[in-house]
Write a structure and sequence with these properties.
Shape: globular
Largest sheet: 6 strands, mixed
Structural class: alpha+beta
Number of helices: 7
Order of helices and strands: EEHHHEEHEEEEEHEHEEEEEH
Distance between the termini: 10 Å
Helix content: 10-25%
């Protein structure tokens, strides 16, 4: 199993501007990284009068023998060619669209940084995270501090039931957006199952039986106990527990039965779950 949490975002842009073309997310593969750089350099060189500086950059990078030598920003004229290391980026692949099984290693398009759009006539500000659209809105009759919420835009209709809120009760629109993005990033790495609550109508034995969550899927999964804490699993094996009260706590389940409490703080339980995953993988590296 691959335990390397670092990948590389490779692309180019003009100084002061966002990348115009695709940025690629690539693993620890110098040939793949250089091939993408080569394509970007060649593409830009075709549109300038003097190709010599671009040829010089290509020749210099072609001599690199390690990924570390390629990392950084390489500037020619007004163009920047970059290789940026990223940790746990979780950029989504398109394997499911092609009906292929994802091996977690291959290259894919780097996910764009979420941007909060302008508000509409109802004061709602949308943003996209990967393939889904969310909206920041105020639950009061007018935009009041402390009433900002975020919800996923449904496939049909434009109502946002409170049960579908990603978060609510935020002081400002900007803080709501910021926390929403922090809660969503770990979903690229971990499957978060819906929260479960104790059913007091069941017999006590049944309530106790359902206290501990079970998962029937591979990969990293976070499932809720009816006692109010979340359990992080890897391929069905418990790796840690998140206590979602304030302050949020994250405990890694040790092989010797002794839990290790991780240092926070975390703004949301999703971040704590991601910290457990990172700790487990780093311990194997």
């Amino acid at each position: 199993m691959n335990t390397n949490r670092t990948r590389y975002h490779v692309g180019s842009h003009e100084i002061g501007l966002a990348p115009e073309y695709r940025v690629e997310c690539i693993g620890e593969d110098i040939a793949e990284i250089f091939a993408w750089l080569e394509g970007d350099i060649a593409g830009v060189a075709e549109d300038v009068e003097n190709e010599t500086p671009f040829d010089e950059l290509y020749n210099r990078l072609a001599k690199c023998e390690t990924v570390a030598e390629l990392v950084g920003e390489h500037t020619v004229d007004t163009f920047v060619f970059f290789v940026r290391p990223v940790t746990d980026c979780g950029c989504p692949c398109d394997c499911d669209e092609h009906g292929e099984e994802c091996d977690g290693e291959h290259r894919r398009e780097a996910a764009a940084e979420p941007q909060l759009a302008e508000t509409d006539e109802q004061g709602r500000a949308p943003f996209k995270f990967d393939r889904a659209e969310y909206v920041v809105f105020n639950t009061a009759s007018e935009p009041l501090d402390g009433y900002w919420a975020v919800a996923k835009v449904p496939a049909e209709g434009d109502t946002y039931p409170p049960r579908d809120y990603l978060l609510a009760g935020m002081a400002t629109r900007e803080r709501a957006f910021s926390l929403a993005v922090e809660k969503l990033r770990p979903t690229r790495l971990i499957t978060f199952l819906p929260r479960q609550y104790r059913d007091v109508t069941l017999p006590r034995e049944d309530q106790e039986r359902e206290e501990y969550p079970t998962v029937d899927r591979d990969g990293w999964v976070c499932a809720w106990s009816t006692l109010g804490h979340a359990v992080v699993f890897e391929d069905g094996t418990e790796r840690g527990i998140v206590y979602a009260e304030r302050p949020i706590e994250a405990h890694v389940t040790g092989a010797d039965g002794i839990d290790v409490e991780l240092d926070g703080p975390w703004r949301c339980f999703e971040q704590a779950a991601a910290a457990i995953r990172a700790h487990v993988l780093d311990a194997r590296a």
